[in-house]
Amino acid sequence: MKKFIAGLLMVLLVVSFIAPAAFAKPKLNFKDVGEGFDWARFAIDRMYEKGVIKGFPNGLFKPRDPVTHLQAIIMALRIMGWEKEIDFKSELPKKVKDVKLSWKEGYYYVALAVEKGLVKSEELKNFRPNEPAKRYEVARYVVRAIGKESIAQSHMNDRLSFKDANAIPKDAVGYVYVITDLGLMKGYPGNLFMPNKPVTRAEMAVIINNLDDLLGDNDDNQKVTVTVKGIIVDLNEKDKTVSLFTYGKETTAYPGVVQVSDIEGLHYELDTENGRYVLTGKTTGLDENVNKNILVFGEVKEGASVYMRGPILEVKEWYLLNESNTLTFNLTENTSVNKDGKEVRLSELKEGSYVEIKAHDKNIISVKIIK
Predict the structure, then answer these.
(1) Within a domain: residue 241?
(2) Helix (H, G, I), strand (E, B) or coil at 60
(3) Which of 32, 113, 120, 243 has the most crowded CB, counting CB atoms within 10 A?
């Protein structure tokens, strides 16, 4: 009997260790978050795992759908840890009851948003919870959530550097200043902010994930393992980081810096870690991006003059590299690199290679060199 009880206790002990992993919240692979959303997949997965963002039936995330005002404030309340304060049995303020909502629990989120200062009481009259939230409106919610309202107010009369700064409502300038200064939201190519553009669910996931990083949540249990494919556009040996262009194709590409040369006529060159190329073909727009980092898809051809400083690279398409289309991951001593089914050295990683990275949070577990 003693042996039986001892054996039973051992089984129970083993089960107690296995159970948390066995019944852990499964990671949902959203069917509609494909390769075109590599730039947002990390944030979507991480925010889903933390319960900040929810999916839809049939494994859908609907990344292209605009986020509504109600969804935006709910995500902000969740990432701040305030959702647990809601008492769904409490009496609602009269002003909140006047808001038009088809979802009963939504009234409690609006009430909490008012209590926490994300939405002011006087703004409830024109609050449209089910309409798409514009970029400047999301900026306002986020800045208020992190307690930067006074800083925003002090910058309301600033002249922002965006080309479309005049399109930003006067009472939103300070919010845009703060959220971009903190790096929570970025501009678009051409130095545009597009304040009236609705924020998509994928973009909102990135914003909230950036906010989570800013808040400094280091709970290891919330780290997410993701797999991302893209083209290596930067290898920083000093910082031990790898940056991927996530809109990449499984083909040869050339990352580098645009230069101008007047040797045998004015033309553009691409300065890369593997040498210099003379650019021909679709080079329209390069004049505005001289000395900037770009990625070129093209084909190397014969015929360069002996006076030119490199072979000809016929440009099929090119992209300006920025934070909106690149992801940066950390190399660690445990990072493995695989090529043709064999493990190789880190030195095999080259800029321009098409790779698949598997990372836990932002620390690379493995890199598979595809091309």
Answers:
(1) no
(2) strand
(3) 113
Both tokens assigned to 301: 């051809």
Looking at residue 11, its pLDDT comes to 35
How many domains does the chain divide into?
3
Query: Contact 240/284 with Cβ under 8 angstroms?
Result: no
Q: Which of 86, 131, 80, 89 is nearest to 110 (CA)?
A: 86
The residue written with tokens 């590599």 in the block is: 38
Q: What is the tens place of the pLDDT at every residue in 251-263? A: 778 999 999 988 7
Q: What is the pLDDT of residue 325?
A: 76
Which tens digit of pLDDT belongs to each residue from 314-363? 999 898 887 767 888 999 988 999 999 899 988 889 999 999 998 887 88
Per-residue confidence at 229, pLDDT binned at 50, 70, 90? Answer: confident
User: What distance in Å separates the CA atoms of residue 123 and residue 140, rounded to the nearest whole number?
Assistant: 12
Rg over alpha carbons for the chain, rounded to the nearest Å, is 25
Does residue 258 lie within any of the structural domains?
Answer: yes
In this structure, the answer to whether residues 145 and 183 fall within a common structural domain is yes
Tokens 């730039």 correspond to 39
Residue 36 lies in a domain: yes
- Say whether both 75 and 159 belong to one domain: yes
Task: Return the pLDDT at 351.
Answer: 92
E strand map for the chain: 225-236, 241-245, 253-261, 267-272, 275-281, 293-301, 312-320, 326-330, 336-339, 342-344, 354-360, 363-369
Considering the domain architecture, whether residues 159 and 179 belong to the same structural domain is answered as yes
In terms of domains, do 49 and 98 share one?
yes
Same domain, 64 and 212: yes
Q: Answer positive or negative: Cα dihedral of 366, 205, 292, 245.
A: positive
- For residue 335, what are the domain limits? 225-231+326-369
Q: Kindly state whether residues 205 and 125 are assigned to the same domain.
A: yes
